[in-house]
Design a protein that fits this description.
There is one protein chain. The chain is an all-alpha fold and 124 residues long. The chain has one domain: NusB-like (N-utilizing Substance Protein B Homolog, Chain A, Orthogonal Bundle). The chain contains six helices and no strands. α4 runs parallel beside α6 and α5 packs antiparallel against α6. The chain is globular, with a radius of gyration of 14 Å.
Length: 124
C-alpha cells in the first residue's frame, strides 16, 4: 500500500468520524447529508451493543461524543469489512489521540483491543 492510499483511507475515516460526531447531535435528521455513514447508522444498535460489552460502566448517552464516533466507525470496519484489524485499531487510536481528550487514546485502545481479543479467541 502506498502512502497516498494510506492518506486517502485516513481521510475517509476522519470524514466518517466527523459525520458520526455531527449526527450524534441530531440523530433524527435524514441521512441524505450523511451518505458516508448510512451503513454505520443502519448497524448502530449492534455496534453500540459491542461498545457496551467492553465499556459496561456507562450508557451510550454518557460517552464523550467524539470517542463514541471513533468507536462506532472502527467497530463498523472491524465487524463488517475486510480491512486488516490492526490497521483499523491503530488508526482509531491515532485519531483519538489527535482529536480526542487526554484519555481518548487509552479508552479507544481498551475497547477495541478487548473486542479484538474476544473475537480472536472465538475464532480459535
Amino acid at each position: 500500500m502506498s502512502p497516498a492510499d494510506s492518506d486517502t483511507r485516513r481521510q475517509s475515516r476522519l470524514e466518517r468520524v466527523h459525520s458520526l460526531y455531527a449526527w450524534s447531535f441530531q440523530p433524527d435528521i435524514k441521512l441524505k447529508q450523511f451518505k458516508t455513514i448510512k451503513p454505520i447508522v443502519n448497524k448502530i444498535e449492534l455496534i453500540d451493543q459491542e461498545i457496551l460489552t467492553f465499556a459496561p460502566k456507562r450508557t451510550i448517552a454518557e460517552f464523550n461524543k467524539l470517542d463514541l464516533a471513533i468507536l462506532r466507525q472502527a467497530l463498523y470496519e472491524l465487524m463488517y469489512t475486510k480491512t486488516p484489524p490492526l490497521v483499523v485499531i491503530d488508526e482509531a487510536i491515532e485519531i483519538a489521540k489527535e482529536y480526542g481528550s487526554e484519555h481518548s487514546g487509552q479508552f479507544v485502545n481498551g475497547v477495541l483491543g478487548s473486542y479484538w481479543d474476544k473475537k480472536r479467541s472465538l475464532e480459535k
